[in-house]
Amino acid sequence: MNIVLLGAPGAGKGTQAAKLVEEFGTPHISTGDMLRAAVAAGTELGKKAKSYMDAGDLVPDDVIIGLVTERLQGDDTANGFILDGFPRTSAQAVALDAELSKLGRPLDAALLIDVDPEVIVARLTSRRMCRECGYIGSAADGAACPKCGGEMYQRDDDNETTVRNRLDVYETSTSPLIDYYRGCELLVTIDGDRDPSVVYADVKEALDL
Ligand code: AP5
């Protein structure tokens, strides 16, 4: 399972990736999670990325490409990986192809989780995440995570103004990748505006799982 999850912010990429990880144990490579961890740890990368993330803009390609190519070289990705939030620009897609061809690990599919932008605004402004285990849900700020008891919080970029900018950035920079992966005959589109378990059934069917 060498896959890319495509889709607008809030389409449900992280939700579906978590289900795949739980059932199959495939490594989940989320650039958003990697960047948030760097920000929380106060690393140089985190300091560089924070202002872009807070505004809902993309972190520069040279920063993110190096991070992902290094991660893909890990032994744990030899039997599969789920890329979530990468690639997001044409330059990232080209760099990914080059790295995977070097590693001899071609992509099996690019799954596009398709959701209407107005549905997304409502989803993201009510999303809460667990600081400890990354569980995604909609509990009140400060409530306990139903999975591990950790603190649920709202991401800094989940306010309406930033969400709308993230949707604009997606439309301009990332949606061209839909045609790119269609041209590579890797694109599978899944209606993401249904119950997550119904979406997941389609994800598994698309991957022959
Ligand atoms: P990132 O963390 O990747 O954010 P994103 O793409 O905006 O995606 P999200 O995590 O917000 O949404 P998701 O699709 O995973 O949805 P989720 O499953 O949580 O990136 C953050 C920032 O980092 C970027 O803005 C950028 O600055 C930077 N960055 C990251 N990667 C980069 C890159 N490659 N290049 C440059 N910069 C980069 O679901 C959302 C909500 O909906 C949840 O509340 C969930 O419970 C709910 N939900 C999910 N599925 C359903 C469903 N089927 N029905 C109803 N509700 C649902």
Describe this structure in words.
This protein is α/β, with parallel strands linked by helices and about 210 residues long. Helix content is about 50%, strand content about 15%. It is built from nine helices and eight strands. It has a five-stranded parallel beta sheet, with helices on both faces. The protein has a three-stranded antiparallel beta sheet with strand order 6-5-7, with no helix packed on it. A hairpin with a 5-residue loop joins β5 and β6. α2 crosses α3, α4 (about 60-70) runs parallel beside α5 (about 90-105) and α6 crosses α7. The termini are close together. The structure holds BIS(adenosine)-5'-pentaphosphate. Its EC number is 2.7.4.3.
Question: Strand share of the residues?
Answer: 5-15%
The figure for the number of domains is: 1
What's the CATH topology name? Rossmann fold
Helix content: 40-55%
- Termini distance? 9 Å
CATH superfamily: P-loop containing nucleotide triphosphate hydrolases
Look at the structure and give the CATH class: Alpha Beta
Compute the gyration radius: what is it?
A: 16 Å
The total strand number stands at 8
Which compounds are bound in this model?
A: BIS(adenosine)-5'-pentaphosphate
Instruction: Give the uncertain stretches in residue-range form.
Output: none
Strand order of the largest sheet: 2-3-1-4-8
Task: Decide which structural class fits the backbone.
Answer: alpha/beta
Q: Overall mean pLDDT score?
A: 95
Q: Give the SSE string.
A: EHEHHHEHEHEEEHHEH
H/I helix tally: 9
